[in-house]
Write a structure and sequence with these properties.
263 residues, alpha+beta, Arc Repressor Mutant, subunit A, Alpha-Beta Plaits, 3 domains, four-stranded antiparallel β-sheet, 10 helices, 7 strands
Length: 263
Amino acid sequence: MRARSALFDLYGDYLRNRGGAAPIAALVRLLAPLGIAAPAVRTAVSRMLRQDWLTATRFGRQRGYALTGRAVRRLDSAAGRIYRTTRREWDGGFDLLVISPPADRTARSRLSAQLRLFGYGHLGDSAWTWLSPWHAAEVGPLLAETDVTFERFDARHAGDPVALVRRAWDLRELELAYEKFIDELDPVVSGIGPTSSDEAAYAARFRLVHAFRGFLFRDPQLPAALLPPGWAGSAAAAFFDAQAARLRPPADRHVDRMLSETI
């Protein structure tokens, strides 16, 4: 687990609803159970400062770091998808993007990753064409900021939309990833019981959320009408919801204790 990614998880899952800020000492102590050393935490914080995800603040004589407005918006959007706090009804249409991609390979890869994060799939044709069954508000500002030429359409497919989706996403690969998620995380969380320490519950839950968060970059959360029968993602989501809720109280106690001891 990389320190920068773990910091996003820590702020998004625990610190966002506790004011969005913490002393550096608390960040170090909260990531220690994940095997992340203090130098790695400090290096990751410096990088997030440069990228405008964090801003420096003070806790008395201690240095601390708070979320920027940009980070709050990104984490809130991610939380809505991880915990599925908003339910959407699909109207049968697609948000279709036809983009003139950046000439620079790095910029092209970065834009591609951002579009996938927002739930868009690439049709894989000679044109740079992306689609999603949902209309992501973040995409307009993203494309404007990237300074690419693009066209955007509200589209309906005249043929089989399920076949269209299969061109944009490898759903079989995604199903296998969900099955692997359950296989690997079940031993991690099932070992936590009433006699386990709060720190152990926190570490197990952190690993659970961290692993499930990775699906933000892979799963567009397609409507049921476009998914195969017995979709493995549904079982994975139910497993995640149950275990994340079960481990939340002791994990919260651990976070509160670490914050109280360092502020």
